Automatic annotation (TrEMBL):
The lineage of its organism: Bacteria, Pseudomonadati, Acidobacteriota, Holophagae, Holophagales. Coiled coil: none annotated. SMART domains: cNMP, FHA. This is FHA domain-containing protein. PANTHER family: CRP FAMILY TRANSCRIPTIONAL REGULATORY PROTEIN (PTHR24567), REGULATORY PROTEIN YEIL (PTHR24567:SF26). Residues 1-112 form the Cyclic nucleotide-binding domain. Residues 155-214 form the FHA domain.
Length: 240
């Protein structure tokens, strides 16, 4: 996949052995390899079974951007590597402006999926149980003082949907007397111990950080003590 010169780029350097992201983290960007090699491991630690090795021109991490799911692999640089990081908003603009890019991505993905499928057939399907830990960050209601724990891999924020019976990870139904919060309003993503707020598509009443409305599809990093608004509901972000 050629270097996309028509978009804003964020070039990153990862040293040999450095972890790019871990399995279970919520995504806020995908990567294109300009130089170097990257290996995707199946477990949270970069050891044992691995899914694939990627080199110059390859891309990875796009699946979580498309479906807002936790990372499926742990990515590590096998040698000093230069990457381009592309966030979800930029990725969607890239697809709209140049449909040929999406066709090339689908072709490359189909090829990679065949190769990965052949490799995974020979692997043992059993894995050690994942150890979970308590929340390290919360959204705290300004009105009630109630803490809403943020899951280690990130959380969906919104209101209970009586039609489907689905509760978001952080349910603001009791806080939102004016019905200003969308059912699926926003997500908090976690990557490398940093937290990012990302508004979901179709939100009517906005998402705010420190009083400033964030743009749809553009992640905004959260800092301890930040005042965060979802419609008319206001909370504080606390990182322990």
């Amino acid at each position: 996949m050629a270097e996309p010169s028509f978009i804003d780029q964020s070039k990153l350097r990862f040293r040999e052995g450095e972890i790019i992201f871990r399995k279970g983290e919520m995504a806020q960007q995908m990567y294109i390899i300009l130089q170097g090699k990257v290996r995707l491991y199946i477990s949270e630690e970069p050891k044992g079974d691995w899914a694939e090795e990627l080199a110059k021109g390859d891309f990875f991490g796009e699946g979580s951007l498309l479906e807002a799911l936790p990372r499926q692999h742990t990515a590590i640089a096998l040698e000093d590597s230069d990457l381009i990081a592309i966030n979800r908003g930029t990725f969607l603009r890239m697809i709209r402006q140049n449909p040929e890019v999406s066709i090339k991505m689908m072709q490359r993905l189909a090829q990679r999926h065949r190769e990965v499928g052949e490799r995974l057939e020979s692997l043992d399907a059993t894995r050690p149980a994942k150890v979970t830990t308590g929340p390290v960050a919360n959204l705290v209601s300004v009105l009630s003082g109630k803490p809403h724990p943020i899951l280690s891999h990130g959380s969906l924020i919104g209101r209970f949907d009586p039609t489907t019976g689905v509760h978001p990870d952080i349910d603001l139904t009791e806080e939102d007397h004016n019905l200003s919060v969308s059912r699926r309003h926003a997500r908090i993503l976690c990557e490398h111990g940093r937290y990012f707020l990302l508004e979901e598509p179709g939100v009517a009443n906005g998402t705010f950080v420190r009083g400033e409305r964030i743009l749809p599809g553009e992640p905004r990093e959260l800092k301890h003590g930040d005042r965060v608004g979802f419609g008319m509901v206001v909370l504080f972000f606390e990182k322990t």
